[in-house]
Amino acid sequence: MRIRILLLGFCLLPLSAWGLTPDQLRTDAPSVYTVKKGDTLWDIAAKFLDDPWKWQELWDRNSYISNPDLIYPGDRLMLHMVNGEPRLTRQHVERLSPTVKDQPVHRLEAISTVDRSLVLPFIDRYGLLDPGAHPDSMGGHLVAGEADRVMFATGDRVFAKLEGSTGRGDDTWYTFSKPEVIRAPGSGKRLGYLLVHTGLLKMEGPVQGGDLYAARVRRTYAPIRAGERIYPGQAAANTRFTPHPAPPMKGRILRHVGDQSMLGQGQMVVLNLGARNGLEKGHVLLVREHPRRVKDPQTHKKATLPGRRKGTLVIIQTSQRLSFALIMSNSLPIKAGDRVVSPEG
Fold it and tell me: Are 287 and 151 in contact (CB under 8 A)?
């Protein structure tokens, strides 16, 4: 399953990042690769590296090329050695997509971070909320619809009451019901809330002569009812970032997101780690089994075996104590309770 990637600026690449050795390349890494429409950076990186998240150590920015961190279909990526270290450089090819006469010329888009068709269904349907912001006191709530009914559908005009002034300048709002409290394993400490969105609104503005705001239902995921809570968000999450190793840390997968019973590549999970732990969008973590205790047949003493690597995650969105992570690959089934660790921890 392909994950589209867009590279960010050189400010994300610390000078200390350089230091990739030839033995970190795949033995079958191509010397030249031509980027195709639909390619993803993760897929491309996996053609060259055993550990795709080390891409920023392989990528060699071309300062003489406009937007050197963007990769487009048709670009040629060339692998070569610089002072004994592998580098991947780009030969940019300016290409125009086919267009109808009398219409503007459209240039091909750079490949993106993650496949929006994988990520947006999750981000549009679910949200994370910090433990200090209670769902019943944030954003606002729906009061009624322009039509005299209790449930609303796409295209309906509705009216909402907003709390305070927060978010009044935002035109995109989510509706939600039945927020789920997410707690820490063992201690039961509240880490935040998982919000299940029922729809997406476009806020139009205040109603003249009243204290209500008018909005239009742009999308429905489940029946939307009068009284449901609403809060401002982004209709299209930013899926453009560079994958890079998370700092040393350990955590757990708390639960899956969605209706899937088996967890694997392309699915989303919730972690008990967030921004307060140093996590940010694009960080990569490994999923590992718990260490296993065995009896040494010679000494008859207990020995600890390290947990096997089960898969790879990339962080998509964070709150203070929680995060959404996308499963990029897995060799064993992944489940709630599995350990997550930094690739370099």
Answer: no
Contact (CB, 8 A) for 191 and 322: yes
Tokens of 189: 């400490």
Task: Please return the burial class of 82, using the count of CB atoms within 10 Å of its CB with bins 0-12, 13-18 and 19+.
Answer: exposed
Mean pLDDT highest for which of 95-104, 152-161, 162-171? 152-161
Question: Distance of CA 197 to CAs 231, 258, 280, 335, 343, Å?
Answer: 10, 12, 23, 24, 33
Contact 319, 131 (CB under 8 A): no
Task: Tell me what the pLDDT averaged over the chain comes to.
Answer: 84
SS3 at position 197: strand
pTM above 0.85, yes or no: no
- Cα separation, 70 vs 73, whole angstroms: 10
Determine how β-strand 244-245 pairs with β-strand 283-288: parallel
d(CA 135, CA 180): 10
pLDDT category at 77 given cuts 50, 70, 90 is very high
Mapped onto helix, strand or coil, the DSSP state of residue 115 is: coil
**What is the enclosing helix (H) or strand (E) of 48?**
helix 41-48
Check whether 83 has a pLDDT greater than 70.
Answer: yes
**C-alpha atoms less than 13 angstroms from C-alpha of 237 in its C-beta half-sphere:** 24
**Residue among 274, 256, 253 at smallest CA distance from 125:** 256
Beta-bridge partner residues of 203 = 215
- CA torsion angle 225 195 258 256 (round to 10): -160
- 129 pLDDT higher than 70: yes
Distance in angstroms (rounded) separating the CA atoms of residues 16 and 165: 44
244-341: what CATH class?
A: mainly beta
The topology under which CATH files domain 10-96 is Membrane-bound Lytic Murein Transglycosylase D; Chain A (3.10.350)
pLDDT > 50? residue 12? no
Helix (H, G, I), strand (E, B) or coil at 319: coil
- Check residue 49 and give its pLDDT: 93
Domain ranges of the chain: 10-96, 118-232, 244-341
